[in-house]
Amino acid sequence: xxxxxxxxxxxxxxxxxxxxxxSICPVSRHNSNxxxxxxxxxxxxxSEGELVHDRELFSCLTCYACSxxxxxxxxxxxxxxxxxxxASGQGEHGDCAHSGVLFSLMRLTAHSGIKQKRLDWLDGxxxxxxxxxxxxxxxxxxxxxVFEDIEVSPVNIARNSIKILNALxxxxxxxxxxxxxxxxxxxxxxxxxxxxxxxxxAEMIKESGARKIVFSCPExxxxxxxxxxxxxKLDCEPVHITELxxxxxxxxxxxxxxxxxxxxxxxxxxxxxxxxxxxRHLGIYEPPREIIKAIPGxxxxxxxxxxxxxxxxxxxxxxxxxxxxxxxxxxxxSEAKATGAEVLVTTCPKCQIHFKCAMVDxxxxxxxxxxxxxxxxVNLVANAMETRE
Amino acid sequence: xxxxxxxxxxxxxxxxxxxxxxxxxxxxxxxxxxxVEKSPSIGGRMAQLDKTFPTNDCAMCIxxxxxxxxxxxxxxxxxxxxxxxxxSGGIGKFRVRVKKKASFVDRSKCTGCGLCxxxxxxxxxxxxxxxxxxxxxxYIPFAQAIPRVATIDKExxxxxxxxxxxxxxxxxxxxxxDFEQKDEHIELRVGAIxxxxxxxxxxxxxxxxxxxxxxxxxITAIEFERLTAASGPTMGELRRPSDGRTPENIAFxxxxxxxxxxxxxxCSSVCCMHATKEAMLAFEHHxxxxxxxxxxxxxxxxxxxxxxxARAKKEYDVTYVRGRPGRIEVDPENDNPIIWYEETISGRxxxxxxxxxxxxxxxxxxxxxxxxxxxxxELNEDGFVKVPDKLAQPLDTTKPGxxxxxxxxxxxxxxxxxxxxxxxxxxxxxxxASLGSRGGE
Lengths: 389, 441
Description:
The structure holds two protein chains of two kinds.
Chain A (H helix, E strand, L loop, with lengths): L2 H7 L10 H5 L11 H10 L2 H5 L12 H5 L6 H14 L11 H8 L24 E4 L3 H7 L7 H14 L15 H5 L3 H18 L3 E4 L2 H10 L9 E4 H7 L21 E5 L3 H5 L4 H9 L4 E2 L22 H16 L4 E4 L2 H12 L12 E4 H10 L3
Parallel strand pairs in A: 1-2, 2-3, 4-5, 4-6, 6-7
Helix pairs in contact in A: 1-6, 8-9, 9-18, 13-15
Chain B lengths: L8 E5 L3 H12 L3 E6 L13 E2 L4 E2 H14 L3 E5 L1 E7 L5 E7 L14 H5 L3 E3 L8 E3 L1 E2 L11 E2 L5 H5 L4 H5 L12 E7 L1 E4 L3 E3 L16 E3 H8 L20 E8 L14 H15 L4 E6 L9 H12 L1 E5 L4 E5 L4 E8 L4 E6 L2 E6 L1 E3 L3 H7 L26 E3 L9 H24 L4
Parallel strand pairs in B: 1-2, 1-13, 2-5, 13-24, 15-22, 16-17, 16-22, 17-18
Antiparallel strand pairs in B: 3-4, 6-7, 7-12, 8-9, 10-11, 14-23, 19-20, 20-21
Helix pairs in contact in B: 1-2, 1-10, 6-7, 7-8
């Protein structure tokens, strides 16, 4: 795909240069070098030369705040995704966070013969070898050691997801050699590796006989729902766990006391962060809220910007994490604090990682008070079930 | 003139400025005109406006004489508070069934004294004032209404709903109140029909980024018109909704729902000019008022329009900022709206605090698919009347003998609507005359 095809596919031709995108962009508000409008203008005016070498190409969060409001329906996130693949072909990459270890892991699993030992954390979970329902674990086991120091446990989300499925009478199967879904590679322009991962995963899923794949990660969910069908054939339906839970609320044994790691059992008020992938990408706003409201004794309070107007956690695909990302996080956490909530609930492990990171930052003491509990909705639900005994 | 001879008469649908103009032209040519208006008074959208661009003339001062002329013209029969129900036949011999809605007031007896609306114990939001003012359940829609008669709003009348009240009846010295009145159906024979049903306002509450109905000091342009009109709910004192204070710093946001593929893809065509006019009016009401207009493309394409914009900048301190705001928030301390926008000349993202924000709400053709079906005409993809030959017969619809003018035809301002109305009247007369020369039936 060349730049002209990208312009056609994403309706960039229709851009009115009105600036609505830039005015709403969470990055542009802090980083004056980044402007979706000017990026599109450059695509229309110049050959791809200047565009692919623009360092800010990798600053976009692909959060869809812009395209959701665009009067011309230009698909800016997909424009970004495709131009990044052009850039990637010319050796351009964004600034990679965490010394690139996460990308190394993604690319490592793209080898077809690789054997992993990724399911050693299943204690207390009931799973089977053969089931209609497959739970897609995602990156959790790899994230676990990387983010241990900021006290985020993605594996705990996976464990709790399975426990909740068990409570609904579902014993899911897991793929012992599940691969990275490829989300971060696709959105940083490495389409070739993404395709390899998609093919391996699709093949394993086909062999498993699964009819339904449950995700607790919105990125994996989006990837399977929107991106995989463009490259591979999947004969099963991807579902996000919040959709499944919202449909089965009456069957969940929810109890009125919540204990969380590091969070007092008296927690009463929570607020909800819509992850971009679940919210604006897929339009799932209500199910997570219905679930929170169904937990006895928990009150949901909304932030100033919520639902379709939510603000992203500040970094996407581990790329171009900067002081601007931190500013966005501080802004968002200040909004969360202003609600009077004790805990910020989200449904994306990366949101949790990014907000926790902002709180443990050494410089954070000088800024506004942003310290609060952060957890995944799945943990909140699992804990509300556990207090039963 | 034989009243039964349809070829000598024309039906005009809509009593706004376009419908009035078409009716007057035809009536002056000697045709019998039936002017059907669904609301209790003629006048239409123009009656709600304070001033008109590009001359800043008082809208009512231009409109009222035409309304009076239409009312008193021997060849025009006003059928207000009436709706077209059914149409059959074709050019030269249309049969039209019209419902004269029960107003529960004998319109021939009512003197328009207004005592009933004053004494009516029940008040509801006035449609004419867009809910900014109240009216009685029995009401005369506005001060210059024609015909000046009262109407009972049966949706809200406590006597009609619950069987108790009749306060209006007690004060009516003309004995005009008639609770027994029923809808009446009449049949007309006409040779041609002119559709001039005007414009509606697009519901912009779904465009949540602008905060309309959520932020008190964010209003629409038509609401602003009522707040500056001397006959309006504030007697022409511009006051902002939150605290009644006169705003000294006003922002206008253009293209709210217009030129937007998710809403209305077309340009509403009059907003650049009415925002300019409203900014001037604010200054005239309260010299020193600062207005800032956030626009995308300045469409000052009419005669003397560009000069009008230049005058706004020079004499009225109006600033034009190129950028379409992405969000309007509110400062809870003072209820001031805060506009987030990209100033697209410099490329900087900025916020702008105003005391009042006026949104240029998109306008829509006021005609439903169901009504178009009754007429037997087609609408285009945006809901405007479909015009098969835009160049040679720009006022003809898809059905011979039915013509269209004004906003229902396509987005346009008052002078263009009036021009079109005369054109449509001419086309109707021409078609009927040519039937006559061919001998007709």
